[in-house]
Amino acid sequence: MRIVLVGPPGAGKGTQAAYLADNLSIPHISTGDLFRANMSQGTDLGKQARAYIDAGQLVPDEVTIGMAKDRMAQSDAVNGFLLDGFPRNVGQAEALDVMLEDEGVKLDAVLDLEVPEDEVVKRIAGRRVCRKNSAHVFHVTYSPPKSEGVCDVCGGELYQRHDDSEETVRTRLEVYHTQTEPIIDYYRAQGLVVTISALGEVADVTARAMEALKVSDEG
Predict the structure, then answer these.
(1) What is the mean pLDDT of the chain?
(2) Is the pLDDT at 215 greater than 80, yes or no?
(3) Count of other CB atoms within 10 angstroms of residue 205
(4) Which residue, among 5, 9, 30, has the nearest Cα to 174 in the 3D structure?
């Protein structure tokens, strides 16, 4: 299957992408991974991306599109892939359509993870990260530490990252609504969108997604 995964920040796209890709035996292709791989390998696209990032500028669509095209041409993606973070806007979605048409293939589904805005803010703004080890992450509501402000694992101080503040989260949501959400209507016009609730336990959301994709695939 060839799937695009969309949803607001805090919807759990990264987590669900990993489980779905594993269940469907297709590669999970995320924008973040594409950028890291190209920059670490020193590819031409990676060098271009780093120049923009170092200058504090947004990486142009053509660079992101070029990275995605190269990745989708690799052997493990011949029979399908799950795109996470790409396309990010309608222009990228149109470019993806052209790429796939050139290869004689098409998308099977666009999985839209739906989460109420207040829940997104609660999920992200409630995160607390250990200063000693950033892999130790807690949540004031869902997975609180035994002692407030103290990491259960190593005793380090827990803090809220700037990116996780409510103000920053609401700004990120506004960007999502303005730039990315329009691709849902773009793909809905093609009959590709399958919307599911991303509320509840991770395994339940995955099961919901697999069932929805099964219906889409049969359709």
Answers:
(1) 94
(2) no
(3) 22
(4) 9
Predicted TM-score (pTM) of the model is 0.89
Tell me if residue 132 is catalytic: no
End-to-end CA distance of the chain: 13
Other CB atoms within 10 A of residue 217 CB: 13
Which position among 172, 188, 208, 214 bears the catalytic label?
172
Active site residue 2: no
Catalytic position from the list 13, 122, 123, 128: 13
CB 199 within 8 A of CB 108: no
pLDDT, tens digit (0-9, with 9 covering 90-100), for 136-171: 999 999 999 999 999 999 999 999 999 999 999 999
3-state secondary structure 54-119: HCCCCCCHHHHHHHHHHHHCCHHHCCCEEEECCCCCHHHHHHHHHHHHHHCCCCCEEEEEECCHHH
Let me know if 161 is a catalytic residue: yes
Which of 2, 71, 127, 128 is catalytic? The answer is: 127
CB atoms within 10 A of CB 145: 17
Q: Which of 36, 47, 131, 161 is catalytic?
A: 161
| Rounded distance between C-alpha atoms, residue 109 and residue 145, angstroms | 39
Catalytic residue (one of 50, 69, 88, 170): 88
Predicted pLDDT of residue 216: 59
Q: What number is the average pLDDT over the span 180-206?
A: 96
For the range 54-63, what are the long-range contacts, defined as Cβ-Cβ under 8 Å and sequence gap of 24 or more? 59/35, 61/89, 61/91, 61/92, 61/95
